[in-house]
Specification:
By secondary structure, the chain is an alpha+beta fold. 33% of the residues lie in helices and 16% in strands. The protein contains three helices and seven strands; from the N terminus they run αβββααββββ. A hairpin with an 8-residue loop joins strand 1 (27-33) and strand 2 (42-47). It is globular, with a radius of gyration of 18 Å. Its EC number is 2.7.12.2. This is mitogen-activated protein kinase kinase.
Length: 159
């Protein structure tokens, strides 16, 4: 089981290394090491430092009574555009499907830059139309689209 977790972390690191975009958390490097205290190999990933995730940032914004609706809308607009930019880049250029998009995987640094992280559930895309294959059972249940639970109930229009 530990070997599987290590392999998954190395796969995640390799995936993130391929994704170089302003709205994706940067990977500086990773190592697999053993020490006398830890004879089983452990994987260490060194990534860009981020200040908070979207869930934590949302709480800060709501807790500050001086925030106006305009500032909150501006913040949410920035988050939305940044996440969409990252997802479009991942799909079109890095050929990666994130598969675990949720507030805890949207990070914000001290400059206010918004970046995606946690590529543990991601999948490399192959071909031109591979956008649904191999996604069953991936991601966080609370953030899954309803068609993931009952694909027959929802239909794609226009096709």
């Amino acid at each position: 089981r530990k070997g599987n977790a290590q392999g998954k972390m190395l796969q995640e690191a390799a995936t993130v290394k391929k994704a170089t975009h302003a709205n994706v958390v940067r990977l500086f490097g990773f190592i697999v090491a053993t020490t006398s205290q830890r004879p089983v190999p452990h994987c260490y990933i060194c990534m860009e430092r981020m200040h908070a995730n979207l869930d934590e940032a949302k709480q800060v914004v709501h807790d500050q009574a001086k925030q106006t609706a305009t500032r909150i809308e501006s913040f949410l607009g920035c988050v939305t555009v940044s996440v969409i930019d990252a997802l479009v880049y991942l799909r079109d250029h890095a050929r990666i499907m994130h598969r675990d998009l949720k507030p805890n995987n949207i990070m914000i640094n001290e400059k206010g830059e918004v970046k995606l992280c946690d590529f543990g559930e991601s999948k490399m895309l192959t071909g031109l139309t591979n956008t649904r294959a191999g996604t069953a059972g991936r991601g966080c249940v609370f953030y899954m689209a309803p068609e993931r639970f009952d694909p027959n109930r929802f239909a794609q229009k226009g096709k």
